[in-house]
């Protein structure tokens, strides 16, 4: 059997659309850039991944509790967090095509092209300049100078007619109530991250959930960023979902906790079924840390677009709680009864993009296989997150087979996501479920219903296409055992 893995992101984009995982938003109107809708299979997959994370965080840790904060928050929140002032990307416009680019990414693209042409020395020099941009004049001025000096042209039009580089705030601003103009410091934003909802509720949760430091608050929700460069499918979206957990610890224990969470999170990705050799951690060098962070690392996956961040683990120190204390005037401290000590806790953050995780799961599971001259596309998803658990097929449309198939369907429905299908050849039905990532298919045939004793059916396993004949009463046991013992190939 020959097996081909995913080579190109477009393959996943096409499959996602064709099978109803993910569609472009408002497609019939030409689409809305970097905004996507999840179809029937995608919704199930996303929900399963979300549940997998939620179970890990809040069920397996008795000191982590949940929160569901609103998307709209008081304008002061984003002043305190630093987003109004600093949540910017440097952008530059090509005057010929009116296309907008992120200035730093433009330079990165040029560096990659130089490397492609074997001009390693020039590429290294430029990389050095990019790494230190902002330390001479200012980030915008430095980036503009680099683009000018190296005559970097617009990738699409080929023109060299650039505007100045300007900072572009990534937050979406909206009207709040009938009288707000947004001009008087009363601008309301769609949250660019879910974390701040956790920080401003720190005291509420501590008081009401009777938690003692160390404890964590977990949240899943939408975040919005008006990304300048938004492409690469659901990797960089303008509306996306984050799964974040902020863990409050005593200062001095933060480093150990940070390392602990980094390890735990990497293990979670493996437990999700992602092949370990496609995962790595990437610690941020000290001079690249955000102003509030003492330590930071990304968990990266090797997507067809290269190694990219799926999750960030950050030691945010006491920055956020101190800032909100200062801006709100409300003390956000913890009193340790045993040690008789008052302090502002440090925060270890684990922040993962749900959509990037969906994309990782799809990319990692994708295979094209040639079997005895026949080919199939299959998604070898962990059965624990597969959109459909079980396909149920009568071999042909005969009452006896349909009746038993429906009986099994009714029995499993509720505990499992099942799909009854009687149309087309059995081979075609298997292929459809392979592409949807369904791990088990049950086929009802005459051998099974006409032989002596209990009715039997065949259960076919997606990954190796082997089949077992099992009594109907053992189906749940087999599905459960195989789900638990599943390993990625
Ligand atoms: P990047 O450097 O790729 O822009 P980031 O460092 O700004 O990401 P964080 O602010 O740390 O990202 O957000 C945490 C997680 O949220 C990221 O690891 C990623 O999975 C997800 N995320 C961030 N921005 C987007 C986006 N535009 N679309 C989809 N997911 C995103």
Give a written overview of the molecule.
35% of the residues lie in helices and 26% in strands. It is globular, with a radius of gyration of 26 Å. α2 packs across α12, α5 packs antiparallel against α6 (120-131) and α5 (103-116) packs parallel to α7. A hairpin with a 2-residue loop joins β13 and β14 (306-315). The chain has helices at 9-18, 40-59, 75-80, 83-86, 103-116, 120-131, 139-149, 195-200, 202-208, 254-271, 319-328, 354-365, 399-412, 426-436, 446-450, 475-485; strands spanning 2-5, 22-24, 36-38, 64-67, 88-93, 100-102, 166-169, 172-174, 188-190, 215-224, 239-249, 279-283, 295-303, 306-315, 334-336, 341-343, 346-353, 366-371, 374-379, 390-394, 418-420, 440-444, 456-461, 467-471. The protein contains 16 helices and 24 strands. The strands form seven sheets. It has a seven-stranded mixed beta sheet with strand order 4-10-11-17-14-13-12, sandwiched between helices. Strands 21-20-22-23-24 form a five-stranded mixed beta sheet, with helices on both faces. With 489 residues, it is an alpha+beta fold. The longest helix is centred in the first third of the chain and has 20 residues, at 40-59. The protein binds adenosine-5'-triphosphate. Residues 193, 225, 227, 236-237, 240, 242, 309-312, 351-353, 355-356 line the site of adenosine-5'-triphosphate.
